[in-house]
Write a structure and sequence with these properties.
Elements (H helix, E strand, L loop, with lengths): L4 E5 L5 H16 L5 H13 L5 E7 L2 E13 L4 E11 L8 H16 L3 E4 L6 H9 L22
Parallel strand pairs: 4-5
Antiparallel strand pairs: 1-2, 2-3, 3-4
């Protein structure tokens, strides 16, 4: 039986759910163990300062079941804002039930409404399931390779 999924912006009371989702996603997709206190502080910083980004939370039956974070990059080439989708997580029991599709649709609608130039995300190169999901939603691979120089203990991902 289909479940009604609602999407809303993240609120301070979502901090623990969002942090747990980020931790689970990093472990599942990259084998990366994140420090829970650091992640919770990072999530809280976003929830307190929309200049850092905006969390979107999917709910089914009034309970959070999925999340994503949108951050922004100005594109001088396009004279517009690129919305980066990050920190995507859907609780395992709700996967393949339209949770991410609903989150993505809402974020895409909001981006179009705001006049954004487009949406982007990065995905772990071996995560074929995620790549297939994103492709089915109309996203395509680019010719870019992401490189990084991360300072501190964590050296992968967001």
């Amino acid at each position: 039986m289909p479940v009604n999924i609602e999407v809303r912006r993240g609120r301070p009371e979502d901090a623990q759910f969002l942090a747990q989702g980020n931790i689970a996603m990093a472990l599942e997709t990259e084998g990366l163990v994140l420090d829970p206190e650091t992640v919770l502080r990072g999530v809280t910083a976003v929830l307190q300062d929309t200049g850092k980004g905006t969390y979107y939370v999917a709910e089914a039956g009034g309970r959070p079941c999925g999340q994503l974070l949108v951050t922004h990059e100005w594109s001088d080439w396009r004279n517009g804002d690129i919305w980066w989708i990050q920190s995507v997580y859907v609780v395992p029991e709700m996967r393949r039930g339209g949770v991410f599709r609903t989150l993505y649709s809402e974020v895409r609608r909001a981006a179009l409404e705001s006049g954004a130039a487009g949406l982007r995300l990065y995905v772990e190169r071996h995560n074929r399931a995620a790549q297939n999901t994103y492709s089915r939603l109309g996203m395509s691979l680019t010719g870019y390779v992401v490189m990084e120089d991360i300072f501190g203990q964590q050296s992968a991902g967001g």
